[in-house]
């Protein structure tokens, strides 16, 4: 019974299985979506709470930093203002009072303080100053800055109190300008600042509450409170009448009361309590159930079910045809009751296995063919059956050798990618050549060389078109790698393969010396021999030994120009470069005991590149020769002459040593041994002598003479002058003037 049930399940139609699978997936995804929605609904609520807490923390930090900045500014104003610091004056100093008003104006114009006005009360003269005027407290607070609660008597009482820093509840002040009879209203937060050091003064700062709120308050709504440490309101931007603020539990930063969320923060510096009120509807609306989302979910569910039925039927039809075809080919008993997918899987597995065996056989055959061709090119005898099979092929053929010439730009951009580049180029060449000639074998013979052996047939198309196509396609990237193609003559016997290979190598060896893609054959041969004039070689040897860089370069350039004019091959240019390098190495070995590294032929493809390389090593050799001559001559004489001619410049020991191509340490020791004094002492000696001459013969200021003699610091000049003469520059000039007058 169990076996029949298992067989029935296995033979169930594909359509039923597909439809069941789709339905299970739909149910799983639907369940997951519903669970995710309700799970993340709570997370959204928590995120909104966290967002408001973060905004409240940022708002508190902004206000606290502002109040701390305001305290610092006011304390600094106390300490720096001349009027306040003039405590000895018995009468009102109008000049200093004017300066006080100017300082107030400058302070108020600071946009980061958000100050409407600053009132400075001088208890000594019962005078209040603001940014435009001064007057009695009664005049200022009852006429210019009017508020029913903040009268002149109120402020006098507060100024006389023992409080030094106190914030008062924000209020609206009627302001009247000195120059206008009109008045305007400003909502400001009064802030009193007093100092124990200056008990006769009190400063009242009127802070613009609208700008303060706009710049520092961060929230999704504008319901905001600031309470003083005693719980009294200081600032609010809503009508606070009838509103009772709930208390929050210790350690909590928010509480929900009624239809509002209350977020609390207490400032660490001021002790003020900052409260932000967010209506419950603003938070709940973002985390509530969305009817539109539900409708979309139901529509998506219906579409999923319909799509499952549609695609199951579409998929079932071709599967039925495939299974029917397999069963017709496989007539073994029992296939009718085998699961369709199992039947397809077994058939595909058999085909893949057969294909792999065929590919393995082809790869082994290609590998044998590759080794056979390499053996023939290298004249290595083999006795494999594959080799005998190839030897029996007596068909005309040609060798086509592709050489990849990488430029310096390639090595800068693709370090270590030569193998991968060669692989892709080989695959492209193989594909193109096989399309042109069926019997073509392409393989990589060297790191930068790809060889194609093309067996010609009666209806063989012209290979030049295919080679030109390869040249044009790969020529798109010639700034990184350019291609040189060498085509051999036609050979009839397989025994001539080595000869054909040598021919294409010879064509590459004497290719034209430039960096353009090209196709070479017997008709495009270049000069295979060049002997430069003996006089030019002798000229190069002579000027190298004497360190004449320009003359050596000129002689080498003339040789390269002659070779280019005579169309010498690449091999001859490389030989000439190696000959110049050997001459340079002999010079460097005799002078420095070193040599230059081998010539990077893989990066030199033009006369300009070869010239640039040779100029570099020639310069190194001529500099070594000059350095040896300078060291063998009078180093001390050069140093003294250089100091005499450049004493006004910034001269250093290392700078002079670099001009001699020696180290600063060697120059210092050598100069001390030859002259008995240090290099720096000699430099200062020459500079002081020049300064003495100018002090005697000119009317220049002493600091100008110091600059003209290489001293950019007057104190350094005076100290060094007194060290060498025993007197200061001023004393020296005075004595020199007296001596001239006496004469």
From TrEMBL:
InterPro entries (alphabetical): Homeodomain-like_sf, HTH_AraC, HTH_AraC-typ_CS, Tscrpt_reg_AraC-type_HTH
SUPFAM superfamilies membership: Homeodomain-like
Keyword annotations from UniProtKB, A to Z: DNA-binding, Membrane, Transcription, Transcription regulation, Transmembrane, Transmembrane helix
Keyword DNA repair: no
Transmembrane spans: 21-40, 289-311
Record-annotated HTH araC/xylS-type domain positions: 637-735
Cell inner membrane keyword on record: no
The organism's place on the tree of life at top rank: Bacteria
Protein's name according to its UniProt entry: HTH araC/xylS-type domain-containing protein
Source species of the chain: Paenibacillus aceti
Taxonomy of the source species: Bacteria, Bacillati, Bacillota, Bacilli, Bacillales
